[in-house]
Every structure is written in C-alpha cells, then in structure tokens.
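hiii so um. not sure if this is the right channel but i have a protein structure encoded as tokens and i wanna go backwards to a sequence. like what aa goes where. can anyone help
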C-alpha cells in the first residue's frame, strides 16, 4: 500500500513538473509572439523538449516566415503602387498642361493659321488624355466582380478593318500603312464585340507608339499576329509587356497609361483566348489566339 502511494505521489509530481514546464513554454511563446508583433525578426524557440511543444514551435516558425514574406510582398506592392500612381498623375497632367498652354497661345494669337494649329494641337492633347482616362475606366471595370461579357460569334476581319480606319489619321501622320493578310476572310471567333474592338485598338496603338516603320497584321489558323519593328528607345521586355502599368521608356512621352497591353491580356483571357509576345532582334510579334467557331 505504501509503495503504491509513493508511486502515485511520484507520478503526480512528474505530471506537475511537466505541466509547469508546459506553462512556462507557453508563456515564453506568448512573449516571443508579442515581440514579433512589435516588429522583431527573432526566431521562435523553446527550452521545453516535449515533442508536441517542439512541433508547435516549428509550425509557428513556418507561419512566422510566411507572415514576413507576405509583409515584404505587401510593402513592395504598396511601394510600386505609389510609384505607379505618381507616374500616372504625371502622365495625366502632361497632356492637360500641354492643352492648356496651346489654348492660351490660340487665344493670344491673331494669325488665323497659327491659331488653328494651336487649337488642333490642343485637341490632340485632350484626345490623349481622353484615351488614358478611358483605359483607366476600363481597368476599374475589369477589376470589378460585376464585369460581364456579351459573347457572340464575330467575323474578325471587318471589326479589325473598322479599328484600322478609326486610326487612319495616326497612320497618315506617321507616314505608314498597315499590311493586312488573312488566310480566311471569313475567320470567325466567339467573343465580346466591344472587348475585341478594344483589344485590336490597343494592339494597333501599341504598334503606332512603339513601332518603327509599318505594322503587319496577319491571320493564320486560329491566331492573329501583330508585327512591327520597335525603335531602339522603345524595346519592350516581353516578360513584363502585359504587366499592369508597364511602359517602355519612350511611352511616357506619348500619352500612354501603361494599361493598354495589360487590358489586352485580361480581355483575351476572359474571353477564352490567349496572347503572347516575342521579340526577335527588334521585331516585336504579338500573337492573339481564340478558339475558332466551328
């Protein structure tokens, strides 16, 4: 009886000691977590060697590393967003300031021809601003859960031709003509008409802004290719060309929001298509592909 009592007392003391160690370990973990919450980068550790406590410590360290990584990514994204907003504000202000300056010159000018030139230039600057704001508006729609597509069968060539005609003046000012070659003029896809129109418009504009020489547009099987030589100051990074707010250097001087190619990729993928860019020396090729309607 005495032996049993001694054994029970020993067991109770052992359990009490283990419980006390666990309490101390939990308190230590709590203090370390509080330090981490205040910004410490310390690694979590415990003196208690219990298997469960060591396992908990390892799990907390994994969570800690994940939290630090997420925090760094958030800070990096926030910094980039602030830079993009600053850049975008500058890009919006530039054509607006330019338009205001030309309007003031027109008001002060008595020469009819010069006044018309100033007003026409101001109109061009305001159109640049309008295009940028339109892309920003479309971007906000794309990031909204309420954005919906109106999918239907479309013949590609007539819609592309309309987009080219709408940009006739820009081609004329640059002194180039687009080359269009379709294997099948009846090539049809399933897409949202306005979204496909925006895709074509942005791809053509990209060729006009960054292009050196003409723009070639050709259709082969289920793909449409947009090809143009790029100037040395506008060589894009094909790994980033579809990123939000990405710009080649000279685009900043030409009324670009940096959203055009991002919108192309977003719209194409939402409609079940895909888009990719390749650069061979200074020849930029954008391949747009949609499943063909059978």
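sure thing!! here u go:
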């Amino acid at each position: 009886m005495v032996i049993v009592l001694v054994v029970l007392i020993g067991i109770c003391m052992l359990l009490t000691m283990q419980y006390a160690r666990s309490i101390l370990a939990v308190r230590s973990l709590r203090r370390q977590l509080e330090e981490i919450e205040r910004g410490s980068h310390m690694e979590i550790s415990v003196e208690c060697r219990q298997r469960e406590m060591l396992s908990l410590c390892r799990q907390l360290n994994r969570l800690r590393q994940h939290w630090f990584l997420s925090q760094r990514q958030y800070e990096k994204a926030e910094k980039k967003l602030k830079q993009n907003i600053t850049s975008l504000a500058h890009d919006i202000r530039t054509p607006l300031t330019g338009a205001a300056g030309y309007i003031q010159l027109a008001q002060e000018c008595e020469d009819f021809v010069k006044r018309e030139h100033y007003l026409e230039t101001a109109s061009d600057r305001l159109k640049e601003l309008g295009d940028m704001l339109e892309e920003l508006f479309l971007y906000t729609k794309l990031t909204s859960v309420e954005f919906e597509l109106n999918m239907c069968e479309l013949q590609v060539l007539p819609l592309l031709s309309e987009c080219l005609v709408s940009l006739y003046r820009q081609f004329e000012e640059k002194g180039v003509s687009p080359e269009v070659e379709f294997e099948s003029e009846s090539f049809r896809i399933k897409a949202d008409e306005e979204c496909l129109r925006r895709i074509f418009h942005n791809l053509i504009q990209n060729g006009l802004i960054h292009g050196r020489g003409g723009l070639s547009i050709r259709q082969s099987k289920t793909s449409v290719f947009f090809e143009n030589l790029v100037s040395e100051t506008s060589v894009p990074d094909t790994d980033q060309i579809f990123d939000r707010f990405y710009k080649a250097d000279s685009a900043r001087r030409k009324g670009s929001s940096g959203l055009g190619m991002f919108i192309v990729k977003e719209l194409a993928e939402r409609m079940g298509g895909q888009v990719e860019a390749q650069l061979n020396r200074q020849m930029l090729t954008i391949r747009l592909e949609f499943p063909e309607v059978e």
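oh and The longest strand covers residues 223-229.
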